[in-house]
Amino acid sequence: MIVQSKFSSLARRGPIASLLAMVLVVCSLASPVKAQALPEVLSQMAPDAEVIVIVPNMAASSKKISQFFEAMGMKDIPEMSDPLGAMKREMGIDKGFDEKGAMLISMSGIMKAAQGGGEPAIAVLVPVSDYAAFVGNFEGKEENGITLLSMPHGQEGFARKIGNYCLMGPQKDVIANYKVAGNTTALSKMVGSIGARHLASNDISLYINMKALGAQVRPMLGEARKEAERNFADLEGDGDGPEAKAMAMGKGLMAATFDTLDAMFRDGDSVIIGGDLTNKGVGFTVTAQFREGSPMAKMFPGGKGAAADMLAMIPNNPYLMAMAMDMKGIDLQGMVDEFAKRFPKDNWMAEMLKSSTALLPQSKRMASVYYAPANAAAIMAGGLSTISVVDTTGGANYTKAAKKYFGDMSKIKMDMGEVDGTKLMFGFTTSYKENALSPEAAANVGAKVDEYVVKLDMPKELMDQMGEQANMINMMLRTAGYVATVDDTVMMTSTVDTNLLKVGVDTIKKKNGLGTTSLVKQVRENGLPENSNFEIYVNLASVTQLLNQGMALAQMFGVPQLEGVPQIEVPNNLPPMAMGGQIDQGGMSMRTYIPMPVITWIKDTAMKFQGGPGDSPDRSPGAQPAPF
Q1: Could you tell me which residues are beta bridge partners of residue 108?
Q2: Helix axes 15-27, 58-71, angle to 10 degrees
Q3: Per-residue model confidence as pLDDT tens digits over 87-132
Q4: SS3 of the chain: helix, strand, coil, percent, to 5
Q5: pTM of the predicted structure, to 2 decimals
Q6: What does the pLDDT look like over 519-569, one tens digit per residue?
Q7: Bridge partners (DSSP) listed for residue 265
Q8: First to last CA, the chain
Q9: What are phi and psi of 29, to 5 degrees?
């Protein structure tokens, strides 16, 4: 009903809003396909447009929406059973409309309108099979090349013919002065190779001309930054207490945020937000292209990604989240260095950031996984078990750098200020032992194995205040794990579990791990781009089981808000949600893919918990609704 409400309320505002309503529904849905030519309608866009919305095929998008909502058991919503028909009825369109054509909405003067309280320039290219018949739907009367339209709900509109389109909008001067690009050459350069692929394959796209908006937005960002700096100056105060240290940290983060936004508008050519829908799942993609030779473009050199192969070397145990990344496509070192510049050189945050990149020069690709704990209480006892596998430039050099990394960590002192004459100083105690296993144990594992220990040291004064809880806190702040080397591949664990160590080494050698499982392969093939530079998988089944365990534990302690709340049922073989992306020639994409089984499970679960106490057979009388 939320989607129906959004569509109806927007559609009642007028004809242009009715077109936008159709767009909104498609956007709210978000099958990568092979690259193809850009939609022809883009050759008719205005070169100075700041924002455009493109639906390449109205009938195809409408059919996909209808099939999606039918599969969701929501076909009784009239607007969703036939979105295109609903739009035509709302606008009073009976003839002359090309249902298989593309639609484009162009907007300019957005920032000026926002600042001055006026309206942006809006023009809509509507596909027509017969222009005269189409404008006849609105009692069109031509005067000096412009057709005056009597739109539904009493609005006045204006139109003229451009190719196989009716250019229409609420402002006469906009329609009269509209200029077409004539081709897509300039646009192709603006969006880059990645953006062009997604403009061609998306069911709907929102194109943002960052180059045009940048000159308008950057001065506004500058004023907002000055205001933020004044606010920090008012709050900063004097002294060396925790508040002053927090303000110094906040100023650095604030500077990094504004500098990043400014750089995006300074160097950005375009951003594209797109959505696509198939019977296998829903995808949302965001792409960004930076100007050739600009500082931001140099941070995304790109190249054919090979992140997927790394997940094959991660043991296939129940997991919460897994990710893989090909390092060669992105200048992570440069990004961290730029971020660190926003903090004073003697600030511990700058030291931490510098330390975090110590292993990057020896890293080519990597994969990490967070495993599901046995139960919710296990997180408190020892945290999450993780494994990271790195494809290195040389195994021996990497472990040598890792030993130095842990040693340098012990030199970092985190000064949190002074309270009542006591200096709050945090730090790390670390150790690194080479060849930690006996020769027999190492032979059984099949790898050279080192061991590391990292413990966060809290100020003695704070630990004394914790009393008997101090020992438990100390245990939680300590991490120990193995560093195993198999040729040029290095695995790091966050536990000293020799069984997991053995499985991990075997998986590296056999390459039969998590990335080769049917569910991950299915989601990758259906929803992620080929040759991804990075991939992320979120296992909602394990996340939900952990949530169930947490709720059960809370119910045991008598948390009243959770009384009577049933466990969430998870179907067998629920595929993961996925994110992935590519980096190429100063451009990048970030794609989120939700498989259809996940969508229907979320819908069914929401329906189960919908309503008040007692509405569901799984609820006890008077129980509280689920807390989500």
Answers
A1: 121
A2: 60
A3: 898 888 999 999 999 999 999 998 888 887 788 999 999 999 999 9
A4: 45, 25, 30
A5: 0.85
A6: 999 999 999 988 899 999 999 999 999 888 888 877 877 788 777 788 899
A7: none
A8: 18
A9: -95, -45
